[in-house]
Amino acid sequence: MTRFLLPAGVFALLVAVLFIGIQRAPEKTVIPSALIGKSAPAFTLPVLGSDQQFYADSLRGRWYVLNVWGTWCPECRNEHDTLLEIARSRALPVVGLNWKDDDSAALDWLEQLGNPYDVVAVDREGRVAIDWGVYGAPETFLVDATGTVVYRHVGPLNLQIWSREFLGRLPRASAGGGL
Amino acid sequence: MIAEIGHYALILALLASLAQAFFGLIGAARNHDSWVATVRPAVTVQFLMTSLALAVLVVAFVQNDFSVEYVAANSNSALPVGYRIAAVWGAHEGSLLLWAWILVAWTFAVAALSKRLPAGFAARVLGVLGLVSLGFHAFTLFTSNPFLRLDPAAPDGRDLNPLLQDPALAAHPPMLYAGYVGFAVAFAFACAAMLEGRLDQTWARWTRPWTTVAWAFLSIGIALGSWWAYYELGWGGYWFWDPVENASFMPWLVGTALIHSLAVTEKRGLFKSWTLLLAILAFSLSLLGTFLVRSGVLVSVHSFAADPTRGMFILAFLVIVIGGALTLYAWRAPLLRSEAGFEFTARESFLLFNNILLVVAAGAVFAGTMAPLISDALGLGTLSVGRQYFDPVFLLPTLPLLALAAVGIHSSWKKGRLGERRKAILLTLVVGVLVAVVLVLGAWEGAMLLTPIGFALGIWLMLSALVDPIDRWRRGLSLSRGVVGMAIAHAALGLFTISITAVESYTRERDLALAVGETGQVGEFEYRLRDLRAVEGPNYDALRGEIVVYENGREIGLLHPEKRNYWVQRQVMTEAGIDMQLTRDIFAALGEDLGAGRWSVRAQVRPLINYVWLAAFLMALGGVIAATDRRYRQESAG
Amino acid sequence: MIVLMLLAMLLMVMPRAQAIDPVELEDPGLQERYRDLSHELRCMQCQNQSIADSPVGLAGDLRREVRELLLAGKTDAEIRTHMRERYGDFILFRPQFSTRNAWLWLTPLLLLLIGLIAALRVVRQRAALAPTDNSLSDETSGDSGSSGRSAS
Question: How many domains are contained in chain C?
Answer without folding.
Answer: 1
